[in-house]
Amino acid sequence: MNEALHLNLAGIPLTNPVILLSGCVGFGEELATLDGFDFASIGALCLKGTTLEPRLGNPPPRLAETPCGLLNAIGLQNPGARFVIDRILPRLAHLPTRLIANIAGSTIDDYAAVARLFDDSPVDGIEINISCPNVKEGGAAFGADPRTAAQVVAAVRQATTKPIITKLSPNVTDIRPIATAAIEAGTDALSAINTLMGMAVDSTTRRPILGNRQGGLSGPAIKPVALLKVWQLHQVAAPHGIPIIGQGGIASTEDAIEFLVVGASAIGIGTALFRNPLLGGEIATGIALYLEKHQIAHVTALTGTLNNA
Ligand SMILES: Cc1cc2nc3c(=O)[nH]c(=O)nc-3n(C[C@H](O)[C@H](O)[C@H](O)COP(=O)(O)O)c2cc1C
User: Fold this and answer.
1) Which of 195, 222, 227 gets mutated to test ligand 1 (max ligand atoms within 8 A of its CB)?
2) What percent of the chain has pLDDT over 70?
3) Distance from first CA to last CA of the chain, Å, rounded?
4) Which domains does the chain have, with CATH numbers?
């Protein structure tokens, strides 16, 4: 336990600022079987996107590797909120880390209904995914317009007293008005970025590689885009005291520090976990060493310290 890494993220007390991202750790069950994985080494675990009804997801193939990136079109496969709460959460609730639900829906009422179910569960916070590029209805459609984004956030705000985090899409011309709308509607924190829309094509068959034709790009390839969006978000979120979970391509301690410097209070790791599932703990240790080396007393002192900004 390193006190210099402790932080209160919009009401969620974290032992360190490292969060394992939704869709990249399932519901934590595989991590639990890994040699050397320690849940206490990470600040929080974000659960797979959960909808009101179970979803089978998109037709395969659902993954395609690209240079420095990964395209996915899972399509929010999940067993439904009731199953997650009744059957999966009881197995996770004892873990020495914080749990964040990640919710999605096809209608505003769906989001509110899932939030209401999670409100009566042991999760520490609820992340609203209004940025999934891989479903036909809902998802990113809500996050592309400040008015609909605000409606979803306001409906979830009504449905729960738990901290809410709004996860934003980079697939917009300007992310700032969406963030402002989410803040005014009552979000406690922001999370960015979700994946960038992309496509992969097989030149021999001239067919799309993904069953869904299009997918979401993640991994190191998207880091420069993510850094810019987090920096822009910090400009509108900081005056309201709203923290940001920075993410998109983080694969090392240096990457994590860059996100903190442009304005993130916590950082998320997703795609890089497929190569090294222990990376979260390693980056938390790396951040602690960086603070020591640069004689910075606490991780919160790094947020938004970009020089020459
Ligand atoms: C296979 C896969 C599944 C994902 N599923 C979800 C999801 O269910 N809900 C969500 O909000 N984000 C989901 N994401 C997005 C990640 O949580 C993360 O925001 C994004 O991948 C950027 O971070 P990264 O580059 O570190 O992976 C998924 C990403 C991947 C690669």
Assistant:
1) 195
2) 98
3) 33
4) 3-302 (3.20.20.70)
